[in-house]
Amino acid sequence: MSTHNEHGSGRRSPGRSPRTYRFLAAALTLSAAVATSLAPAPQQAVAKDKTVLTVAVAQSVDSLSPFLASRLVSTSIHRLTYEYLTNYDPKDAHVIPGLATKWESSPDKLTWTYTIRSNSKWSDGKQVTAEDAAWTFNKMMSDEGAATANGSFVTNFEKVTAPSATKLVIELKKPQATMTALDVPIVPKHVWESVKDFSKFNNDKSFPIVGDGPFVLTDYKPDSYVRLKPNKSFWRGAPKFDELVFRYYKDQDAAVAALRKGEVSFVAGSPSLTPAQAASLKGDKNIHVNEGPGRRFYAIATNPGAQAKDGSKFGDGDPSLLDERVRHALFMAVDRKAVIDKVFQGHAVEGKGYIPPRFSTYFWQPTAGQELAYDPAAAGRLLDQAGYKKNADGKRVGKNGKPLNYRVLCHATDPNDKAVGKYLQEWWGKLGIGVTLNCLDNVTDPWLAGTYDLAFDGWSVNPDPDFVLSIHTCGALPATPKDTGATDNFICDKEYDDLYARQLAEYDPAKRADLVKQLESRLYDLGYMNVMAYPNAVEAYRTDQIKSITTMPSAAGNIYGQDGYWSWWSAVPANSGDSSGESTSTGVIIGIVAGVVVLVGLAVVFAMRRRVTAEDRE
Amino acid sequence: MTAETATTAAPRALARQRRRAATARFWREYRTHRAGLFGLAALVLFALVALTAPLTVGSDVQSVTDAPGKPLESPSLHFPLGTDQFGRNLLGLVVWGSRVSLLVGLLAAVLSVAIGALIGVTAGHFRGWYATVIMRITDWFLVMPTLVLAIALATVMSRSLGTIILAIGVTTWPTTARLVRAQTLAVESRPYIERAKALGGGHWHIMSRHVVPNVMPLVLAQTTLIISTAILAEATLAFLGLGDPTIVSWGGLLQDAREAGAVSSGDWWYLVPPGIAIAIVALAFTLCGRAVESVLNPRLGVSR
Amino acid sequence: MTAEATPALVEGPAADPGDTGSAAGRGPRARTTTAYLRYVAGKLTGAAVSLLAVLVTSFFLFRLIPGDPVKFMTGGRPVSAQQIAAYRREFGLDLPLWQQFTDYCGKALTGDLGTSYQFRAPVLDKITEALPNTLLLTGTAFVLYTALGVYLGTRSAWRHGRLGDRLNTGLALTLYSIPSFWLGLLLIIVLSVGVGPVPGLFPTGGMESGGKEGFAYVLDVAHHLVLPVVTLVAVEYGQTLLVTRSALLDEMGSDYLTTARAKGLRDDLVRRRHAVPNALLPTVTLVFVNLGRTVAGVILVETVFSWPGLGGLFYQALSVPDLPLVQGLFFVFAAAVIVMNTLADLLYPLLDPRVGR
């Protein structure tokens, strides 16, 4: 064994050998390869006059079949490629014609007749007829696979027929006020007839996909992009951009960085940009940060004891939460102002009623006497009254003698849940109640099993609020513990149910709105669904790529995930299309310069090394 | 390494004396490794920071309701590293986070090495089918992609520090097992073991008195190296959102930073310090481990 | 050099000395072709057993993930118990576990890895869709970091103990201790978003801008490839460097080299002709092991750079949990390592000049 020490061996360093040269050559080739890839790809493939609107999304497409898709990105794309019977006005979201030009209900409220427009064509040239619509609905009623995504719309349908090419008749089992809000993509019968298994057909094999919306889907690559071309013969008028691309980014921050660089024209927040992102983007002169009232509410849901329609109870929600005073006390210890100021940093509105103020027709707020305002001291008194007194350690003790500790279910993918969760831990900790934050990627399981105490909850509200109201009725409970109900968190209240049934059968808008507000009031008092905030929609686009775009509501609203195709249909390209080309060529030059610098640097290093080697030899 | 095999059953005092001498010799050797000294110094520093954190920053630094600053302030005199999205002092959080990161690294490495050593020693000592089966299992664990397996384990279990420690410990032990087994085989082939057996030494005696002391140095070096892996793994799992979100750790801070949008906003001060801390500690453990290894195995000294 | 000493050569925190050790230690004293063939047969059997074991694990391990796939598939929509039962039947979830397992194994042998719950597409399709992207990324990075590692390692060993060597080793160790995702994020901030006067030179993520064809497409992909590759190379080359370096140093201390020198052969000739080829052996093993491992290790880099590869798919699948996809991907990751290890084992005796001498 030889004895070498750390600080030098007895050996001389090697001279220049052919091997050194070979290594040198190899290294140079490699760095040259790197340098080549340094140069940004020239964008000559994109013609100068072609305008492309690129939307960055942080959600991958689950399916391109309208019968299966449930993610927002997919349904947004379907909005663009398939017409629905009706649409919503961008100004105030009132119902306007879509594929149907007019509609009327029979006096007994059970038969609806729609007139289908005759000036709409599928992208393969065939006429769109009432038969297509009837076929779509009938398929959803008869084929379980086809009912996957939108089946709930047709559960109350008795029969759907198309007596003529322009006439669609839907017969109902019970009156239903939501018949002008059937958000179901109508597909071309002649294309979809041949589909065998709707639960497996993803509609992503042959392009372009035949549709009748303002855009035609021309290309799709999973986890990369979806490309759409304008439908030049669209009856409402063709979109202005030459191409619309949805590009996938794994996370929102990458998408924002891409916007900043000009790689994309628009960033859809998922659900909205973070305060830090919005603040930093505001400083960029070519970027407009669009902030509008959101359509979501952000709430703490309380487990009222999971139950099924057959009366069986399941789950393991903490029994103390069945006491209304406890629920109220918990919510009174939540400083909603702090949630707005600290977590949302002003990009949200303080929560009041169930439906966000954006939908002014249905917006309701608690009266002064009813309101559960932030008051930790009063919350403490309420808990004392309810019999949950503090023990020697300052912990409130449950009826079973154990300190109260609530499991709060949160979405691991939502930073807001985690942030508010930290606050809850401290606020409720001061009340003497422990909090275990249970953050999961996929909360479905404990949620449906009722194995939680409290949970972060939020829904996007549609212009017609029926759906978000329906999920708190007894009728939405699962039939047995083995079924899955439409219920959100197992609320079942007689008074609420009566009001709900009345509003659904009420075809007079003003009277219905009044009933909806009474529903909200009841829900507020129950304390099972405590709305903390209405997060704003915060999104951003490049003004050097998009000149103008319609928000919804048009006065101050959002762009991504509208009820309708207004934003992308209306977007006008900015004239300075060259500016991006310019920056690209600058990029090319800089890239080449950088490559050369790297090469020269390497050459110098190697030259010096060789000199040193040569000296060593002497 | 075979120098000490001359005597077999030495009196206890002699053994102690020899162990002391060995330690002194070890330290003399170790001192000659400058990188090792640097690593050791860095470790001592970080250990001090972590241990004194309750005094210097206190657990209040984690509180969101009493956060002293505004969200995402850039570095200033008051907040040398700026603030996070809750307005908490980032310097304090990095200091506080060192506790969790070091603890997880340490415990996970101890767990990993303990499993590895146990399996290695037994597989080396008991030959036959037991060793075959055990080494098959080890080999099989060895080919499992560590990160993938750790992610899978962390997903399977609930989000907590224990889960992370377990996920790292359970996935990193096979290397140690192989090394320890090889060493055990080498030790057991020495003549004095033969003699001990002839004198009636049982399995337990052989393993605890002869094998383990000889394997310990290797285990020590291996622990040091694995801590570095474990700290990186902890950061990785936390970054992927598999850690406990209510606990402040370096990886967790990076995950928070990314979720808050620090990358696209250019808020480098939120991103840089936790990463540097991870890198320094991981590097320090690696340097120490390498130094220890080369002291124990002078033949390898050539490479350092 | 004893077999037991070899493992310690592989340095660095994540090194797997056992791999090198196994190749060197259990390598045959293959003197004849028949012996080698027997050795090959043994190795192949071992690999097959390992693959089978992976299949078993991937099946059972992921059954432990909390979460009912049917409930995910129905996305909380109202479904009746009958419908749920129908779903279970469709995906074979109603069968006893052992039967699900035998079905799974049977189908896996025919290349059918099941249907993804969330994409409702064959798992094999999803994997073959993403695999080329991952291979492009890892392949490019692998070639670069191996070349860089071997080259710098050789240089370092040549001049060991000098300043150059120390800087070299120090840098390699430092880069090796950096979390790859963190480095990736920093690179995005500095080179992609741009900081101060530094312009954003590279795309922030993804693999292509879309809509390009021919050479423009190749350039576009190459452009997107730079940052992820740089990240991977930076964190990975260190290990190759250190192994090459210590193997070479080891070799340079060997008796036969001393003899060769004593015979008056020129130093560099000795090194080039004898030391380097022998010393590269552990490196070769490491190279193969690395290639297998990089495929799985790329998860982080793919996440940071939105690269549409296997890693991202795996992460997406785990959160569901999309069991068939998770199982399929896990199998692919593990199989990559097994196949590469086996290749290394098979090549080792062929390359080792001492074997058969």
Features:
heterotrimer, A: alpha+beta, Dipeptide-binding Protein, domain 3, 7-stranded mixed β-sheet, 18% strand, disordered N terminus, B: mainly alpha, 11 helices, disordered C terminus
Short summary of the structure?
The complex is a heterotrimer of chains A (618), B (304) and C (357). Chain B has helices spanning 12-31, 34-56, 90-125, 129-143, 146-156, 161-188, 191-198, 203-239, 250-260, 262-265, 268-296.
Average residue pLDDT of chain B: 84
The portion of residues assigned to helices of chain B is over 70%
Helix content of chain C: over 70%
| Structural classification of chain B | mainly alpha
Unreliable stretches covering 5 or more consecutive residues of chain C: 1-30
Largest interface: A-C, 85 and 86 residues
Number of H- or I-type helical stretches of chain B: 11
Folded structure, characterized:
The complex is a heterotrimer of chains A (618), B (304) and C (357). Chain A has 618 residues and is an alpha+beta fold. Chain A has a domain at 296-535: Dipeptide-binding Protein, domain 3, CATH 3.10.105. Chain A has helices at 18-38, 72-81, 130-142, 189-192, 252-261, 275-282, 324-332, 336-343, 376-385, 415-431, 444-449, 466-470, 494-505, 509-526, 566-570, 577-617, and strands at 52-57, 86-88, 95-97, 100-105, 111-116, 157-164, 167-172, 215-221, 225-230, 243-248, 266-267, 287-292, 296-302, 348-350, 405-411, 434-440, 454-460, 529-535, 537-542, 546-548, 572-573. In chain A, a hairpin with a 6-residue loop joins strand 2 (86-88) and strand 3 (95-97). The longest helix of chain A is centred in the C-terminal third of the chain and has 41 residues, at 577-617. Chain B has 304 residues and is mainly alpha-helical. Chain B has helices at 12-31, 34-56, 90-125, 129-143, 146-156, 161-188, 191-198, 203-239, 250-260, 262-265, 268-296. In chain B, helix 3 runs antiparallel to helix 8 and helix 3 (90-125) packs parallel to helix 11. The longest helix of chain B has 37 residues, at 203-239. Chain B is elongated. Chain C has 357 residues and is mainly α. Chain C is flat. The chains are: A alpha+beta (618), B mainly alpha (304), C mainly alpha (357).
